[in-house]
Task: structure prediction
Amino acid sequence: MAKLLLGKEVNQRLNEEIKKKVDLLKEKGIEPTLAIVRIGNNESDLAYERGATNRCEKLGVNVEKHLIPETATQEEVIKVIDTLNKDKKVNGVLLFRPLPRQFDAYKIENMLAPEKDVDCMTEGSIGAVFTGHDIGYPPCTPHACMEILDYYGIDCTGKKAVVIGRSLVVGKPAAMMLMKKNATVTICHTKTADMAKEAREADILIVAAGHSGTVTKEYVREGQIVLDVGINVNEEGKLCGDVVFDEVENIVDAITPVPGGVGSVTTSVLVKHVVDAAARQNNLA
Result:
């Protein structure tokens, strides 16, 4: 049976570190602040907003909410972003995506100042993930994967890592971050000829396919570390990942559960980015 890589343990350490930074900033009169911009009332956005708000409040980070109706014009949304860019009290901005179809998402997302982009929405932040420069912040989910690897002492140097999924939200950034940890990385996707074979060759396997049941026992072997990024709802209405947990857990060395794994760390990473942004913007980083 595999060792469970539990998000709550990673969160405990992360939150302790965040709280110390928040206290130091407040001693200098700086109140770390996250602005949440939500267009409409998408249920998944509301759920993430509740989680982010609760975590911020527990760690002493202020939250401003800017709720925009779906009937708003693009100019009205851009005006909100522009105001937040100029507001020195706001350190980080979280804009929920995808935006409603009537908006030019590319234009709106790239209006945000990269130094306040705490979930890698702008091209400046995305580019920094690939170049290694400190502009903006990486996406919270792949960063959460790296925090899990660090907490459990999993050294990536010289290891073969396979990432299933090539999105800019998880797959590609995760690959770059693994490479920064000196892993040799392969990215698999829907056109990969023999994905199961590629996955079995991995020492570290990150699964971000976006579909439940993608990784079965045929994809894994003994000795592997598996991080399941997927969040899906099965036929019974329960949360599950992209990995068939019951098949894989008995084979690999370690695995993140769903729920209770990568997703549970993501919110803490978001708050960490806000606090780090507050320090940077005040020349304290």
In short: The longest helix spans residues 7-27. The mean pLDDT is 95.
